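Re: beginner question about structure tokens

> Can someone show what the tokenized structure looks like for a real chain? I only ever see the sequence side.

Sure, here's an example I had lying around. Input first:
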Amino acid sequence: MAKILKGKPVAEAIDQKTAEAVGRLGQKGITPKAALIRVGERPDDKAYESGIMRHCENLSVAVDPVHLPETITQTQLIDVIKHINTDNTIHGCLIFKPLPKHIDEDRVAAALDPKKDIDGMTPGALAGVFLDRPVGCPPCTAQACMDILDYYHIPTDGKKAVVLGRSPVIGKPVAMMLLKAQATVTICHSHTQNIADIAKDADILIAAVGRGHFVGADFTREGQTVLDVGINFDDAGNMIGDVDFEAVREVTSAVTPVPGGIGTVTTAVLVHHVVMCAAAGLPS
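And the corresponding structure tokens:
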């Protein structure tokens, strides 16, 4: 039976570091502040925003919620972002996605100052991940994966890691972060042949394909760690991951649950990134 890698203790450890950093900034007269840009009234965006705001409040991080109509033009949205770029009281910015179909998300991402990018959406921040440069912050979910591995003392050096999924927000960046951690990384995608056999050979398997219960017992083996990044819903409306949790936990050695795993850590990472951005460039 696999060890369940719960996200709550990891998030609490990150929050402790965040609180200590907030205290140090307070001694310098600085209150970390995040701008949250939400376009429209998507229920999932509103729920995520509410969770972020509660988390920030608990850690004395200020929040500026920016609510914009779904009919906003791309030029108007970029003007809002440019204002945030020049506001020295705002240290980090999150733009909820997906944006309305008439908005070019790539152009919007490019408009945000990478130094204020707390979720690794700008070309500059992503380049920092790929080139191992301190520009902006990595995507929060990818960082959450690495934080879980670190918290539970799961070794990466010299290990085989397989990432299922190649999205720019999870698959590709977490692969680069695993490379930095000295793992040997394989990325699988929809055109990969014998994907279950490749996954089964991994010491660390990260599932980020966006398909409920895609990873079954045939993808896993004893001694393997499985991180489930997926957020899906079954026919009954229950949240499920990309991993068939009950089947996989009978085979593998460690697995994250959904809910209660990676997602629990992601918000803690996001708030920590705000504080990191606020502290950037200050004397230690």
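Each token stands for a local structural state, so reading them left to right follows the chain. The mean pLDDT is 95.
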